[in-house]
Structure formats: structure tokens, C-alpha cells
Amino acid sequence: MRTRVPALCLALLICGRAFGAADVMAPAPASPADERLVFSADGGTLTGGHGAGGGAITWLRNVGTGGVIGVGAEYQEVFNAHWTLGALTGSLTLGEGDAKTNLYAEAHEGAGDIGTHAFHYSVITAGAIATLASRFSVQLEERRLDIDKSHGNLPKLGLSLRVTPQLQASASYAHSIGGNLGTKLWTARLDYTGKMLDWLAGGAWGPVSPAALNYITSTITPANGPLHEGFAGVGKTFGRTHWLVVGDFQDLNGTKRTTVTLVCTVHLGAYGQPR
């Protein structure tokens, strides 16, 4: 049976899901020196009856009153393809009161194999989020991708509005420049942080892949299909831990992927204080 699967680098690696372990809703640190471990595990199904799954671990620590540093590792596999990544992250918040600017950067480097040949993975991201008023923020981001035979830049513009102290609405648009990514992706999302439960919901749509890769024959054929994605999740805090489960559905040019992700954030406590 011939199985067409979205291009490895674009559908599964470049755009991924519209949320991630580093982007989940977690309670604010208990202190400026709060250390956290973020564990995530995911599993799912792909068109053709194939499975997918993986996991990641990230260590995060606040530095001073406005900085955060992190290091992590991730492993994923889809059918006969698999890849391993290392990650470095950092952010710095400048300003006081309502007028704040958050600068952030991250690098994901690694390699994988699709059964017939190995590939290199490199994604470097830098951006800024400026809070123009107490409830309105603007995000500018630049992402450089070099994965197997796909490469290019993916700048993004995002806007967010804090509708209430608990509810935030956000939207973004990413348009690839140069290379062969062929991406024009819209994303919309709602995040709610409550006393008992947190939840998120949203979707993404737009063309994201110029080609499709047949994992069985390792041949590449034109695709040019739009991505349609929807996701929803719920989270809750238990003591020093925050648990989040998210369901995600993607449809790219007729190839469907369903994923369930479980994320656990463990607050280790302030440095130099009892855990």
C-alpha cells in the first residue's frame, strides 16, 4: 500500500503543532529563582494506520527578576522516521509596569533518519513581545529553518489582547521568505487561567508544505496543500506540579494526524531553599 505522508521537515518539524511544551500555561514562579522541570510525552496516529510518539524534558531557571534560561532534549518518531534534538532557550524582560518588552531566543539542533538517509535539523528563533498597554501586546519573530532539504526564513507577526485578567486572545501570521518552505500560516488561540482549571483552544490554517514525502519509497512529490489544525487542552495544578493535556488534529493535503500530549511542570523551588 502506498502511503503519502506530509513532508517530514515541514508538516512535522517546521510548523509542528500550534503549541509546545515551552508555550504551555504554567503557574507563575514562586520566586525569582524558581527552578522548573518540564516533562512532556505524546502519542498519536497518522493516515495509513501508522503511529507516532515521543517525549521531551526541559530545565528552566529564572535569573534575576527578568531573565529565564533553559536547556532540554527531545526525541520523536513517526512511522520509520525518527529524530533527536537538543534545545537552548533564553528570555529577558525589560521595563516596568504596563510598558514591558520581552526578548527571547532559542535554538533546536539535532539529527534524524527516515530509513534511507539521515538528515540534519536546525531551527534558530529570535523575537520580541512588546506590551503597548496593560492589555495589548505585539510580537515580532524571525525563525531560520534548515531541515534536510528544506530551508528558509519564517518571520511572524502576532497580536494578543487580554480580554479579562484570566482570558487572553491571540492571533498570528507567518509568511516564509526565501528557501523552499512555501508557508503562509494563520494561527488563532484562546488561553484561560483560572483558580481551579486552565484551558486553551485554537486552530491554524494555510499552506505549509511545497512537497510530500512517501516514507515507504522515500520519493518526494508535489503537495501544495493547506494545513487545517485544531487543538484544545485543559490543565490543573497539584501542589508543586502543573499538569496539562492537549488534543491536536492536523489535516494536510488529505493526510491526517491526531496527537495527544501530556505536559507536567514540576516546580523545584527557589535555589538554595528546601525543595
Strand content: over 45%
How many strands, what sense, and barrel or not for the largest sheet?
14 strands, antiparallel, barrel
The H-level CATH homologous superfamily, spelled out, is monomeric porin ompg
Sequence stretches where pLDDT stays below 50 over 5 or more residues: 1-32, 210-222
Compute the gyration radius: what is it?
Answer: 19 Å
- Count of domains: 1
Instruction: Give the tally of β-strands.
Output: 18
CATH class type? Mainly Beta
Number of helices: 1
Largest sheet strand order: 2-3-4-5-6-7-8-10-11-12-13-16-17-18
Summing up helix and strand content along with how strands pair, one would put the structural category as: mainly beta
Nearest-integer average pLDDT: 80
Q: Tell me what the CATH architecture is.
A: Beta Barrel
Principal-axes shape call = globular
Instruction: Tell me roughly what share of residues is in helical segments.
Output: under 10%
Distance between the termini: 54 Å
SSE string, helix = H, strand = E? EHEEEEEEEEEEEEEEEEE
* CATH fold annotation: Porin
Descriptive tags:
3-stranded antiparallel β-sheet; mainly beta; 18 strands; 275 residues; globular; Porin; 14-stranded antiparallel barrel
